[in-house]
Amino acid sequence: xxxxxxxxxxxxxxxxxxxxxxxxxxxxxxxxxxxxxxxxxxxxxxxxxxxxxxxxxxxxxxxxxxxxxxxxxxxxxxxxxxxxxxxxxxxxxxxxxxxxxxxxxxxxxx
Length: 110
Prior knowledge:
The chain is an alpha+beta fold.
């Protein structure tokens, strides 16, 4: 899970009109592709879904990021379909796993 799940302007109200919710699987696609440098194919393998599924998740996540940056909205990360790595190889897909590299969990899609 992300260490923090709420981001946005310091002076922003957190009402529903000023808030965007990003699912944990959208967050994971952004983390793997934009931060870790995975290709969409590698990301799909890590998340255990089809590449076309990752592409849709990634496009939606990027749209949400653009909206919150341009319109000054608050981002809340929660929900979605995912499975946490147990650190014992069950559900873990290796290279992008936070648990193995940084002692944290990674989010894998069911």
